Amino acid sequence: MKTQSKLYFYFTLSAVLLVIIAVLALNTGVYDFGGTSPFRILWQFIKGDPGLSLSDKYVIWDVRAARIIMAILIGSMLSVSGTGLQGLFKNPLATGDLIGLTSGATLLAAIAIVLGGHFKEYLPEMVQFSLVSFSAFLGAFLSMMLVYRISTSGGKTNVVMMLLTGVAITAIGFSITGFLIYISKDEQLRDLTFWNLGSLAAATWTKNIVLTVVMIISYIILLPQGKALNAMMLGEKDAQHLGINVERLKKQIIIITALMVGTCVAFAGTIGFVGLIVPYILRLLFKSDYAFILPLSAVCGSILLLTADTFSRSIVEPSELPIGILTALMGGPIFIAILVKYKRAL
């Protein structure tokens, strides 16, 4: 089977699986529709049935459907960002949460939540409206630049330095966030807890529109870079000889990754390990061909996060388990497996 045909086959198969999981997710929940199928309620809403009750309409469209779409979008972007970073750093441990990207985004989002009221009025109106989102993106971008500057020398990235820098950023972010929690008010404390544990409960269609725009822009730039990332696996000098503009590629991946991670953190808080789990599994199945695993990770990330979110809503009904806890439970063993494999390789 040719590579292109193989990609189409697995991409279609993954998309079908995603649709099946989305259908199951739509049917999962404690709300009683009075014996009527949730799919029938959704169809009535789409048709504009005037007899549909406001509570049924709200639950099926503004709660469940919006949450499912957000899980698909965020899971996809977190997975692709992790895959892109691993290709750039040539290491399976390079993900947004492990190298401090998520921590940086969370830190600046927390500062905006707790201290934003003191300086918000001095900012342009457009920035005021999306202060937390803008702060999360800026935090992710600054963290990415710091990690890259410290861990890269002479065009080569030191993996140990990269991970240690991530640990340092995470420690600093944790300490400052802890101080912000200490001085925060009750409403701010609830928001900060939301960021730290990660949740899709605050999903809205407005946020989904923003996520969709960010995803489309990011994927237009990032997804075609699979062959360039394959060339980067040979080394930067060899990639340059093959006609790859290495510096431009680095800047694109850094900015796009910061944009995706920052936006995801701004809307859903800290959801770790998605960018580690999906690329690792795909690499086991299809080797390190980024022209193949980069687009495929876009769908598989959605599958992973939507599955985790469906479980988080149903394990402790009627309460909800923060999704960041589930992804960390799944990602921890895989992280250890990567470390063991990396140790053997050394």
TrEMBL record:
GO biological process: one example: siderophore-iron import into cell
Check the record and name the CDD domains matching this protein.
TM_ABC_iron-siderophores_like
- Domain of life, per UniProt, equals Bacteria
In which broad location class does this protein mainly occur, judging by the first location in its UniProt entry? membrane
Where found, per UniProt? Cell membrane
Protein name, as recorded? Iron complex transport system permease protein
Instruction: Identify its protein family.
Output: Belongs to the binding-protein-dependent transport system permease family. FecCD subfamily.
List the molecular function annotations (GO) for this entry: transmembrane transporter activity
InterPro entries according to UniProt? ABC_BtuC-like, ABC_transptr_permease_BtuC
Gene Ontology cellular component list: plasma membrane
In what way does this protein cross or attach to the membrane?
A: Multi-pass membrane protein
What is the scientific name of the source organism? Chryseobacterium defluvii
Give the transmembrane ranges.
7-26, 65-86, 98-117, 129-148, 160-183, 203-223, 253-278, 290-311, 323-342
> Could you tell me which Pfam families the record lists for this protein?
FecCD (PF01032)
